[in-house]
Amino acid sequence: AGAEESLRSSFAALEKAHHASKPAPTEGTAPAAPSCDAPSEDVHLHDESTAELPEPWLTFEEAEQGLPRELLVEMRARGFTAPTQIQAHTWPVLAAGRDAIVGAKAGAGKTLAFLLPCLARLLREDGPQRTAGSTSHMPVHMQRPFSRAGAYSPKILVLVPTREAASFVEQEAARFASSAGVPVLACCGRDGLRACQLGRLREHPGCVVATLGRLLDFLDSEQHWFSIRAVKFLVVDGAERIISEELSHRNRKLDADPKAPRQLATPFSVEQLRSLAVQVETPKRQAMIFSQAATDGVSDLARWILKAPVEVRLGPRNPLRASRDAEQRVLIVADEEDVEAVAATFIRRHYSVRAVKSGKALVFAAEPESCDALAKQLRDALPEEIGVELLSGGRSPAEREAATSAFRGSGACVLVTTSSAGCGLGVQDVDLVVGCCPPADAAEYARRVSCAGRPGRKGLAMTLLRRRLDARAMGWVAEVMRSTGLPVPRHLAEALRQRRLSDAPPVDRRGVYWLAEQAAAEGRTGEE
Fold first, then answer.
1. How many CB atoms lie within 10 A of CB 248?
2. Which of 68, 161, 377, 499 is most buried when burial is the number of CB atoms within 10 A of its CB?
3. Contact, 265 vs 250, CB < 8 A?
4. At residue 108, does pLDDT exceed 60?
5. What was the pLDDT predicted at 455?
6. Do the two domains 43-124+150-253+269-314 and 320-503 of this chain adopt the same fold?
7. In whole angstroms, how far apart are CA 313 and each of 37, 116, 201, 213?
8. How far apart are CA 52 and CA 116, in angstroms?
9. Does the keyword Nucleotide-binding apply (predicted)?
10. Greater pLDDT, 236 or 516
11. What pLDDT sits at residue 519?
12. Is a pLDDT exceeding 80 seen at residue 162?
């Protein structure tokens, strides 16, 4: 009853705060990303060298001095009226051949910020690419032989944290790379996709988008013909997630084996990414790192693989600062409360007072089993026209792709996902994020919130926490709120105070008396 009353009052407050659902995009502006006309944040550029920084390209007409017209025509055809802030400042830096480290929140247009300059330079220097012709339909022993080790290397290599991110970048790249004559391939996913991707890799695509694990797999098993020696453009997209995903994976393995040495729980992927960069032998290769958060791991990676980089940052540097476009709300429930049922009730009420398909909701659950149960509850609770899709590690690649496509398109309004699988979806019209499980750390909570606060759109991030079991996560939530410049809600501050009191060790009165006697004795000794 307490949780229901808290939910009712919380929802009433949310309705008051979100009476206006979300602004419709202006005519001619693509809903996928805002233009420079969207509400702006400060863009910070920093260059340790003495070189003069180029002026931003605020219009497509200005961008024509460094980008081919056919790429900009494609931008206009998709409804964009101007570059986004991060694109306007990043394009001229990358077009000048400089390495860069770029930080911006989700929805800022980072993908096209690196894709278009890479494609432009590749087209200008090498001309349209030609595929080697497909032999992937043949048995492996009949596929095209290669005369020497590392005979093929892509020109553009983009590293991403998850298969969903790889799929999104591949789709974005394919739209623009086709006009530049650059074939694109995503290398990611389970073993069931490996043979197909390997066959397409033998066609020599000019741009490869890969997760770290799949790339290392191909470099190891296919080293007699595949390498990254001739990569001209090395992009690490979602760098903070690549590092944290690797660290999270190692920590899960350590938790399963308590006897494992704890010093293994370090972000080894920084070293792996460094070793990959060393394999690139192109004399004038260009490298760039894109991330949402300026973590220590990202800074370490930049020191290893970037040469005299230009830093382009949208908004403050603090990695725990979430989007100010998303309101943060926290609902604290009893430990024995059915969190999934509370979340289903909240989401049902959220859609009942709004027009159907007025926005999309991203719902985070802890495990694949929790995702299944929550998706079932939501399908039972919501009208049929509000589609509910499920995305988790327990789904097949085909099911994951179908769920992602439906959520990106008009087939579903709600996506239930694990925190890992929800990374890099590239969906812009999310205005509600519900966390049914505690975040792994403060940085993950900040990323969740930012999913609901895209530039130019208002959103809501609702987090459900159990009073005692999720006490640690309450501290992370409060830390992000303070970093974002928001007051910590009274009920959350009170819960944290109660936690500190309960965590305090019991006072041994006998010990207190003994310490007092010792102090008194020392005082007398000093006087003597």
1. 18
2. 161
3. yes
4. yes
5. 64
6. yes
7. 18, 19, 34, 28
8. 22
9. yes
10. 236
11. 53
12. yes
**Hey, which residues does 457 pair with through a beta bridge?**
none
Task: Name residues whose C-beta falls within 8 Å of residue 310's C-beta, 6 or more positions apart in sequence.
Answer: 45, 46, 47, 53, 93, 98, 99, 100, 101
Torsion angle of the four alpha carbons 476, 479, 483, 484, in this order, in degrees rounded to the nearest 10: 70
Q: Which residue has the higher pLDDT, 264 or 86?
A: 86
Centre a 10 Å sphere on the Cβ of residue 31 and count the other Cβ atoms it contains.
13
Concatenating the DSSP letter of every residue in 302-350 gives HHHH-SSPEEEEES---TTPPPTTEEEEEEEE-TTS-HHHHHHHHHHHH
Q: Report which DSSP code applies to 361.
A: E
Residue 89 scores a pLDDT above 50: yes
Burial of 251 (0-12, 13-18, 19+ CB in 10 A): middle
Write out the two tokens for 256: 């399963």
Whole-number Cα distances in Å, 338 to 37, 333, 363, 514: 44, 9, 15, 48
* Single-letter amino acid code for the residue at 448: R
Scored b (16 or more CB within 10 A) or e, 108-132 reads bbbbbbbbbbbbbbbbeeeeebeee
Task: Please say whether the beta carbons of 57 and 92 come within 8 A.
Answer: yes
pLDDT digits (tens, 9 = 90+) for 509-525: 444 444 445 555 555 44
Does CATH number 3.40.50.300 belong to domain 43-124+150-253+269-314? yes
Q: Please check whether the domain covering 320-503 is classified as CATH 3.40.50.300.
A: yes
Across the chain, what does the average pLDDT equal?
78
What predicted TM-score, i.e. pTM, was given to this entire model? 0.72
Q: Which residue bears the tokens 């009165």?
A: 509
